[in-house]
Each structure stands twice: as structure tokens, then as C-alpha cells.
């Protein structure tokens, strides 16, 4: 059952006139014909006898033929000539043939004569999509006595819908009867035609050439669909998205539907009859079912659009159930009218499904749904145009009946092309959206991993800080008290000696004092509560003032007006403080200065400390002699990505820079 019309079967001899004019013109003829049809075979009007020798190429004999029908398998072959044959004005075109004739045995009667002196061979074809064609022959003067069946081996042409060969001897005149059935499809036609045997091949080629442009367009669309099959399978192999398997199956079914329609055309073989009756409609239904499954998976309707998913699933179940009923009726009955009604009902279900999807997509205002809805709208709209052409015979190009723009199949195929274009646009949109979502997900995972790593580092730092605090507390409580006790006992011993100097005891006291200072420095650097820039500056100031308090050197410390709230790790504080401590110690021992000034300044990124004195400065010999201490200061500052610089002229300036 097809969506294609067949204007090629329209007889060129058919002239449409007003039915009343035709009725008045042939009133007397019909009265005579009625009498003739009631078994009065002795006389045939000359206008009803076809002169075979006058046929040059082909001739439509619809007006020279009589027609009748009967229930299938009810009329024996021997009783055919007794049937009440009547003339049918004109011919039944595709989509016009009454459905009841498809369910009955059909019979044609026509008379031929050969006035030539040589035998003539002609080919008879009752119409399109006719099968089980049987020819009978009788003499005009004695039909009951000479009624015989012609051999079945006459001729059957697979490209012309069933053709039988008739051979007339010189000056022979005979009447022929044909028994045949129509294929259960809506593209049947009843246009009896005689074709000269020698021109059968040319006539066949002409019928094919009338659809050459449509065939080219059909094969082009089939090629595009074939490409989409390979593309969908390639996408599935790379991404393992199962929906593309269903799209590949949908395009394969649609490609098969179009290719077989164009390739088989009017072939009179069993497979084409089966295709026209049943297979093409089942392929179309299966393609719709598979496409709906693809759409549900493509847009993830089960999770994102549950209402739409239930609707499409319900329509799929209805389509599958209707297809099963259609198959049962086709295989187990000879009915056609019921099949045609069911086919139209299922096609209306296609239409309703598409409309529901389009309306739902418009309401959701989702770009991906809108692309698919636009494709569905294009296919539905052009399918409606195709259906109107089939039903009404409407022609867009009235000057050329065989124009591709007058063919129903063209609009259906064009709708498929538009639907494919909108699908590719939707696929591009979905791929771009998926790429953006993957990038966002990758960034989210990256940030989450960084956050976890940061939390891990913070936990490690917290553990380190806790351990530092514990060690500093233990040092303060245990070692500090012990060193303090040693220093106190050494002082007590010195007081008891009453002026007697014991060098070892003095060394013990000095070592205890020095050890206690170093331990306090270590405790200060380890304590996490001191990890601030303000604490560092305060500690440096306190140490410098205390260090020079009992010396002849005057120490002045210049602090910044505003100290930034910055965190300084214990390691950095330790290296900066020890470098400053080393510089102050060198100034005390070697500068011979009376004044030392410490200038501390800050900005958003750096801490700068300058130590200036009015001493003798540092010459090259002293640099070499005391180079180890200076190199230690430079090494400490570089270890914290800082800098150390010496400026020496009449006095000495040491500059320390450290990032904060």
C-alpha cells in the first residue's frame, strides 16, 4: 500500500465531459448494449470491435470493453461468457478504483479483428497491479461453442503489471474474455490497453522514463539516508549511545521503503505485490515506532519529560497492537476494505502522535525539543499535502501531468529531507550543550578535587600546627624550666663564692643564658599563634632593643604606620629573624658604631627591613673574613624567595626583602 500516484496509467483517449451529456449521448447505445449483454452474442456493434491492424503503438480500449465482477472463486471458467457484462464509461484511475472490486474476481470482454493479410501479435494489459490474469477466446458467431482458454504460457512481462500476448490470424475476428484479480492496494487502476508486441519494450521504457526525475530524487534521498546509517553507527561505536542504533534502524527502514518503491515500481512479481499490499505499510509503521523509541532516548524523556515519555510509550503500544491486527486480517482473510480502513486509521494515529509531540514541545520551549518538533511538523505537513494529492488528484503543475511536483511521493520524500535537516541541527545543538556540560562537570570535579586537596593540606597544616604548639609547650615547660634552673644555680654558686672567679662557672651561666634565648626563639617560631606579620615585626623590635639595652650603641627602630594583616609561616619568620639577629650581632662586634637604625616598611606583597649604622663600614678584607655569616644571611633569605643586599661606603646598610 503506497503513497505514490500513477498518472502514467491515465488513457490518452479519455476526454472528460459533463456526465449528463455523456448519458444523453449514449442512452440508445446502453439500451442496445443491455440487450446484447443478456447472452445476445450474435452481433457486435462495429464501434465495439477493435481493429488490431490500425494499432501503431498502443491503444486504450476502455470504451470498447465490457466489464463485470463476481465474488471470488464463485464463477467457473466455463460460465464466464454468461456473466452480465456492461460497459464502464471511461477507466478507473489509481485511488479511484472502488474497494469492493479489489475483493472480487473481475472480468473483461472485448472484440478484436485483423483485416490485414498477415498475422498480428498484440499484448493485452487490463490495468496496473493485476494478477492471476487468464485469457479466453471465442468466435463472434458462436461464443458458447467456441469458448476456450488460451495457454498460460502466452507472455508475462515483469515490468508492466502483467501482460498477455494475443495472436490474430489474417482476417480473423474474435471475442476475448479476461479473468483477473487486483492486488490489495489503493494504487490499482482499470485501464484496458493493447500494445503492439514489437513495441512492448519501448512502451515499458516510456513508462519508466515518465518517472525519471522522481526516481533520481528518490535515489538521492535514499543515498542521504544511507549516509546517515553509517554516521549513526559510527557515533554509536565511538560514544556507545544506544539511541543512535535506533536512529540507524529508523533510517534503514525509511531508506528501504523509498528505494524499493522506486526500484520495484509497477513490477508484476510476487514480491512487489506483497510489498504494495503489506510490506511497505509495515515498514512505515516500524519506522515510526523505532523513531519514537529513538526520540525518547535522545531527549532522555523518561527522566526529563516523564509525561511525554508515557504518551509516546502509549502510542507505540497502540501502533504495535494495530500492526498485529492488520497482519492477522491480511494473512488470514481476503478483505481489502477493512485493511484500507485500518491503514488510514493507523496513519491518523501517526498524525495525532506528531501533533501531540509538536504541541508538547512548543509548551516546554526547550531548544532541542523545538528542533525535533520542527522536523516532525515539516514531515507531517508535507505528508498531508501528499495525501491530498492522492485523494483529490490535485496537480500543482497543470501544464505537465507527469511533473515531479504533481507526485505525492515527492512531497513525502521532501518532508523526510527537512526532518533530517532539523534533526542534524538538533544533534549539533545537543553535542554543543553536552560539550559545555562536560566542561562544566570537568571544572566542577577539578574544583572539588582542589577543595579536597586543600582540605587535606589544611588538615595536615592543622596537625603540624598542633604538633608545633605541643612541642613548643613541652620545650617551654620542660626544657625551659630546666635551663632556667641551671642559670639560677650558676648565679647562686657565683654569689656563694664571694668574689672568687671560676671561669667554668661563668661559662655555664653564659651558656645557659644563650641557650635560654635560643630556646625562646625556637618556641616563638613554632607557636602557630605567632604566624602573623605583626608578631614578626614586634619580636624583631623587642629583640633589637633588648640586645642593645646594656651596650653603648643607641638602637632606634622605625615601624610602618600600618602593618598589613598577613600570615607569615613559622619557617619564614625563623629565617627572617635569624638573619636580622646575625646582622645585629655582626654590628655589635665589628661596626664600631654608636648608632644603629632599623627601618621596617611593608606593602601588599613585600616586607623590607634596613639595618643602618654609623660605623666603619665593611671593606673587602672583612667581607672575606666574615663572609660565612653574610652568606648564611643570603642563603636564609633566598630559601624563602627573598633577597639580601649590602651597601657599604663610610657606613654599612643591610637590606632584607621577603615576600608576604
Q: What low-confidence regions span 5 or more consecutive residues with pLDDT below 50?
A: 1-42, 156-161
Strand content: 15-25%
Give the CA-CA distance, first to last residue.
Answer: 85 Å
Mean pLDDT: 82
* Shape designation: rod-shaped
Largest sheet geometry: 7 strands, mixed
Secondary structure tally, helices: 18
How helical, in percent, are the residues? 55-70%
Q: What is the alpha-carbon Rg in Å?
A: 54 Å
Task: Give me the secondary-structure category.
Answer: alpha+beta
Q: Would you count the extended β strands for me?
A: 16
Keywords: ATP-binding, Coiled coil, Kinase, Membrane, Nucleotide-binding, Phosphoprotein, Transferase, Transmembrane, Transmembrane helix, Two-component regulatory system
Enzyme class: transferase
Organism: Niastella soli
GO molecular function: kinase activity
Amino acid at each position: 500500500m503506497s503513497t505514490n500516484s500513477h498518472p502514467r496509467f491515465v488513457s490518452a483517449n479519455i476526454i472528460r465531459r459533463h456526465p449528463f451529456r455523456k448519458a444523453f449521448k449514449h442512452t440508445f447505445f446502453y439500451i442496445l448494449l443491455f440487450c446484447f449483454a443478456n447472452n445476445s452474442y450474435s452481433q457486435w456493434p462495429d464501434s465495439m470491435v477493435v481493429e488490431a491492424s490500425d494499432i501503431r503503438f498502443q491503444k486504450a480500449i476502455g470504451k470498447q470493453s465490457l466489464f463485470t465482477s463476481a465474488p471470488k472463486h464463485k464463477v467457473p471458467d466455463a460460465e464466464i461468457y454468461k456473466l452480465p457484462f456492461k460497459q464502464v464509461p471511461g477507466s478507473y484511475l489509481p485511488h479511484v478504483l472502488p474497494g469492493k472490486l479489489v475483493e472480487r474476481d473481475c472480468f473483461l470482454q472485448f472484440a478484436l479483428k485483423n483485416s490485414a493479410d498477415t498475422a498480428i501479435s498484440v499484448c493485452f494489459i487490463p490495468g496496473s497491479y493485476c494478477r492471476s490474469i487468464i485469457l479466453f477466446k471465442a468466435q463472434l458467431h458462436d461464443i458458447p461453442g467456441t469458448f476456450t482458454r488460451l495457454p498460460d504460457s502466452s507472455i508475462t512481462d515483469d515490468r508492466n503489471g502483467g501482460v498477455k500476448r494475443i495472436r490474430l490470424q489474417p482476417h480473423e475476428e474474435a471475442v476475448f474474455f479476461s479473468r483477473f484479480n487486483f492486488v490489495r492496494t489503493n494504487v490499482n487502476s482499470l485501464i484496458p490497453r493493447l500494445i503492439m508486441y514489437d513495441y512492448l519494450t519501448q512502451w515499458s521504457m516510456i513508462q519508466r522514463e515518465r518517472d525519471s526525475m522522481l526516481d533520481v530524487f528518490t535515489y538521492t534521498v535514499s543515498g542521504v539516508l544511507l549516509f546517515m546509517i553509517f554516521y549513526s553507527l559510527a557515533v554509536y561505536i565511538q560514544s556507545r549511545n544506544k539511541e543512535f542504533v535506533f536512529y540507524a534502524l529508523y533510517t534503514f527502514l525509511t531508506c528501504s521503503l523509498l528505494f524499493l518503491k522506486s526500484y520495484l515500481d509497477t513490477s508484476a512479481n510476487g514480491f512487489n505485490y506483497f510489498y504494495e499490499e503489506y510490506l511497505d505499510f509495515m515498514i512505515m509503521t516500524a519506522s515510526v515506532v523505532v523513531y519514537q523509541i529513538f526520540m525518547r532516548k535522545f531527549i532522555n524523556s523518561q527522566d526529563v519529560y516523564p509525561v511525554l515519555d508515557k504518551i509516546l510509550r502509549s502510542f507505540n503500544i497502540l501502533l504495535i497492537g494495530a500492526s498485529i491486527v492488520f497482519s492477522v486480517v491480511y494473512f488470514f482473510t481476503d478483505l481489502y476494505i477493512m485493511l484500507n480502513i485500518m491503514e488510514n486509521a493507523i496513519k491518523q494515529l501517526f498524525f495525532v502522535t506528531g501533533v501531540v509531540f509538536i504541541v508538547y514541545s512548543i509548551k516546554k520551549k526547550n531548544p532541542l525539543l523545538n528542533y525535533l518538533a520542527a522536523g516532525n511538523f515539516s514531515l507531517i505537513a508535507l505528508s498531508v499535502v501528499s495525501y491530498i494529492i492522492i485523494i483529490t488528484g490535485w496537480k500543482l503543475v497543470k501544464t505537465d501531468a507527469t511533473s515531479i511536483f504533481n507526485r505525492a511521493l515527492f512531497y513525502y520524500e521532501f518532508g523526510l529531507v527537512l526532518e533530517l535537516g532539523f534533526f542534524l541541527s538538533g544533534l549539533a545543538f545537543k553535542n554543543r550543550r553536552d560539550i559545555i556540560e562536560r566542561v562544566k562537570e570537568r571544572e566542577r570535579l577539578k574544583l572539588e578535587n582542589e577543595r579536597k586537596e586543600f582540605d587535606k593540606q589544611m588538615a595536615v597544616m592543622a596537625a603540624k600546627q598542633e604538633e608545633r604548639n605541643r612541642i613548643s609547650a613541652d620545650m617551654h615547660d620542660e626544657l625551659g624550666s630546666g635551663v632556667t634552673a641551671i642559670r639560677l644555680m650558676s648565679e647562686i654558686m657565683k654569689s656563694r663564692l664571694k668574689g672568687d672567679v671560676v671561669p667554668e662557672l661563668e661559662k655555664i651561666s653564659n651558656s645557659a643564658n644563650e641557650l635560654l634565648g635560643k630556646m625562646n626563639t625556637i618556641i616563638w617560631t613554632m607557636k602557630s599563634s605567632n604566624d602573623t606579620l605583626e608578631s614578626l615585626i614586634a619580636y624583631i623590635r623587642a629583640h633589637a632593643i633588648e640586645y642593645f639595652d646594656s651596650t653603648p650603641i643607641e638602637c632606634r627602630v622605625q615601624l610602618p604606620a600600618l602593618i598589613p594583616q598577613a600570615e607569615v609561616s613559622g619557617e619564614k619568620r625563623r629565617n627572617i629573624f635569624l638573619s636580622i639577629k646575625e646582622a645585629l650581632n655582626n654590628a655589635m662586634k665589628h661596626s664600631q658604631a654608636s648608632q644603629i637604625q632599623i627601618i621596617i616598611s611593608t606593602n601588599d606583597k613585600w616586607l623590607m627591613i634596613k639595618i643602618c649604622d654609623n660605623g666603619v663600614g665593611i671593606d673587602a678584607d672583612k667581607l672575606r673574613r666574615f663572609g660565612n655569616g653574610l652568606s648564611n644571611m643570603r642563603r636564609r633569605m633566598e630559601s624563602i624567595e627573598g633577597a639580601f643586599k649590602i651597601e657599604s661606603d663610610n657606613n654599612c646598610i643591610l637590606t632584607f626583602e621577603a615576600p608576604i
